[in-house]
Amino acid sequence: MNISHNFFLYFKDNQPILFNYKEKKEYSPRKEYLRALVDYSNTEEDITEKENIVNDFINTDILTQNNNQDQPYLNYYAHMFHHITKDTSNAMADSTEEEWAGQYLEVCKRVKKVEFPRRGQIEDFEVVVTLPQADEVNIDLIDTLKKRKTIREFEETSVNIQQLSNLLFYSFGYVHGVEKEYGPFRRRTSPSGGSLQIIEPYVAIFNVEGVENGIYWYEPETHSLCKVNDHFSYQDLRECLAGQFFANDCSFGIFLAANLEILAWKYKTPRNYKVVYLEAGHFSQTSQIIAVTQSLQTWITGAFKESAIEKFCKMDGITKIPVFFTAYGKGKFSHMHTIMKKKLDEYRD
């Protein structure tokens, strides 16, 4: 017999939980069950005399005849996460269209009974920069898409506050104003699950005319920047980006954060974590398109040190987490940074 690879053990309120991540089933084993499992895993000790325990293990697929270990293409933990979040939206899959609509409305009624989490307000900050009203931007969409290209080496140039204002407003602002059909919710230029608008930009200012260096939280209601950190250097940025230096000399950068408190207000399943990153991708893509209209180049990454970003942006890492980063400015349209090209040439030699 083999111990199934579909389980992991964790502790909740000092109680052990065996979790089948493929079937999404939890078991609370007693001490004698845990002891038998540990003994078998360490020495493959014969536990057949513990007939009741063995039968329970077999009936719950903890013990199997065959080795059921997958050969995942993903990292093993990512593989587990994929299965934990797989098929978690099937509760109403077998209902008719009328039944589905009715059940969904019942869910919404239950959600509405819970107070909506408070968003940040400009009153929470000592330093607030009111941005100028955004200019009207007219673009040829196909031409703009063709011009979008990731760069990996910025030049030390400044951008003006109007360019920053335009980019923030059309990427993250409430461009539609108040719309009666959406009630208290607001729309932006990228799709958002349930119109909850969980993505919040934290803007790292390095070289923007009229805005001091530091990190700011963008507040879309008043189209303002609210300072959360007085100083932020390129070396600090490298710390946040796990040593990557491709954003050095950018004029400004944006850390996209996800407000998980607001997300969990409506969506409760593990699958909601996948939606976080999809939504961040929508907003990043929109901001890159708007950047082209402002004659700015961009570089993006999802490889970073979350704890460092949380420190500089003063996120708690629980209700709000960093999920993506984009750098903006002027630079070389080259597929490779000068330092990387030099290293590659040395390698070839």
From TrEMBL:
InterPro entries: Bacteriocin_Proc_Enz, Nitroreductase, Nitroreductase-like, SagB-type_dehydrogenase. One of its GO terms (molecular function) is oxidoreductase activity. It comes from the Bacteria. Residues 145-329 form the Nitroreductase domain. Pfam families: Nitroreductase. This is SagB-type dehydrogenase domain-containing protein. The lineage of its organism: Bacteria, Pseudomonadati, Bacteroidota, Flavobacteriia, Flavobacteriales.
